[in-house]
Write a structure and sequence with these properties.
The chain is 14% helix and 28% strand. By secondary structure, it is α+β, with helices and mostly antiparallel strands. The protein has a 5-stranded mixed beta sheet.
């Protein structure tokens, strides 16, 4: 064991006791730290970086954007959006049968017949059927969340049933506005069973019109988009205009041609938000980060700090044998952010207690959580910091699905230089 590893070993138990003392694993905010902690210089430093964490919910304007199109639909002028059906007053949705693989429908919703669903009709459905749920939006090829929100809409099945399907319905596919250029169409698909039924306690697939209690902006896919709770962003098509009911037996997503797993669901993984790249010898190192809570939930966030001269275990492709230590998962925030109207969560959000508006389970699946860790002071040298998650099945990141094409979740590496 080299000098750096010996130093780390001596501090491991001290670090564990420290986190038990301050109770960060259950504290919903820094304000719950016990009295006297502020007198400890480096605890104050950890408190400071926790206080600077991003808000839990993301403002609509702060979502990362991966929109497609030339021009991108949300870049159109207000007048142009009015002309092409991208405003509440002009929006409509066709729900029809696939001409190549027809499903039999009694009453398709089409522009030609004058039965396409309009904004007022969607709002009438919303009065009876509106649902709201938290979801982190992520692109499966980027490996970091685009934003976290409370999404509101009408279950897609309520609109499907308006067409009175009779038989030969196996899947749906759907797409949004694409500048009337077929080569720019972005299409996704789902099995009809997922639309009509919500397995394993999942929220429904929705025709979405609100984010964080406010109507969708054009940048977020407004006036209407689809949102699939457990899926990556490519399933939640923006500027929704067409849903096609089909007897096709396989997926026909645009992403299928891009060597992607089009039936993947959200993975659980962790990454850093704040970590110093250079510190002085002997100074404890405050670290914060986020965890995406995928379909398998989140049980732990763990970290590992090794001197760069330390050899990695052989035959350990997924780094399961490193000396991982538990970090502290922060509890639900006191304030949610995201520019909620009056700063309050909407009523009847899935997964929240109706009276207190606090989460029934934490961390919540299909969302995010924040974590913190105070690393021990170190002798001079070059080090590598890593973090990972353990899901509720006890499986460590990047398993059980380590392949990027079903969603990126590789273990992050951060270099830290400790100077004399």
């Amino acid at each position: 064991m080299n000098q750096a590893d010996s130093w780390l070993a001596r501090h491991a138990e001290l670090t564990r006791r420290y986190f038990l003392k301050i109770g960060l694993a259950s504290a919903p905010a820094v304000t719950l730290l016990p009295q006297g902690v502020a007198a400890i210089e480096k605890v104050t430093e950890l408190e400071a970086v926790i206080a600077q964490l991003e808000s839990y919910l993301t403002k609509q304007d702060d979502f990362k954007d991966v929109s497609r199109g030339d021009p991108i639909p949300h870049s159109l002028s207000a007048e142009e959006r009015q002309q092409v059906g991208l405003t509440q007053e002009t929006w409509s949705l066709e729900v029809t049968s696939d001409p190549e693989h027809p499903a039999e429908l009694r009453t398709p919703l089409s522009q030609e017949s004058g039965t396409a669903l309009k904004w007022d009709g969607l709002m009438e459905l919303a009065q009876k059927h509106a649902v709201r749920f938290p979801k982190v939006m992520t692109c499966n090829n980027i490996g970091c969340p685009l934003g976290m929100g409370i999404w509101e809409g009408v279950p897609l099945r309520e609109v499907i049933w308006l067409t009175q399907p009779k038989k030969d319905l196996r899947r749906i596919y759907y797409y949004g506005f694409h500048n009337e250029k077929p080569e720019q169409m972005f299409r996704s698909s789902l099995p009809i069973g997922r639309v009509l039924e919500d397995p394993f306690g999942l929220p429904p697939v929705i025709i979405c019109y609100k984010l964080n209690g406010q109507f969708l902006t054009p940048q977020r896919g407004g006036p209407v988009r689809l949102v699939v709770p457990e899926a990556y962003g490519f399933k939640s098509v923006k500027w929704l205009s067409h849903v096609v009911l089909t007897n096709l037996y396989h997926a026909n997503d645009t992403y299928a041609g891009g060597n992607n797993d089009v039936d993947s669901w959200l993975k659980t993984f962790a990454a850093t938000l704040s970590i110093p790249k250079q510190v002085k010898a002997g100074e404890p190192i405050p670290v914060t980060g986020y965890a995406q809570v995928g379909i398998s939930g989140l049980a732990k966030v763990q970290t590992c700090l090794l001197h760069d001269d330390t050899p990695l275990p052989s035959q350990d492709r997924f780094l399961t044998k490193l000396p991982w230590e538990d970090a502290s998962i922060l509890g639900p925030p006191k304030t949610w952010g995201g520019e909620l109207p009056d700063g309050e969560l909407p009523d009847s959000v899935r997964g929240f207690d109706p009276a207190s508006k606090r989460p029934l389970h934490w961390p919540m699946r299909l969302s995010k959580a924040h974590w913190a860790k105070l690393l021990p002071g170190l002798p001079p040298g070059e080090y590598t910091f890593r973090c990972r998650t353990l899901d509720e099945n006890g499986i460590a990141q990047p398993l059980p699905r380590p392949f990027d094409k079903s969603g990126r979740n590789s273990i992050e590496r951060v270099s830290i230089e400790v100077i004399a």
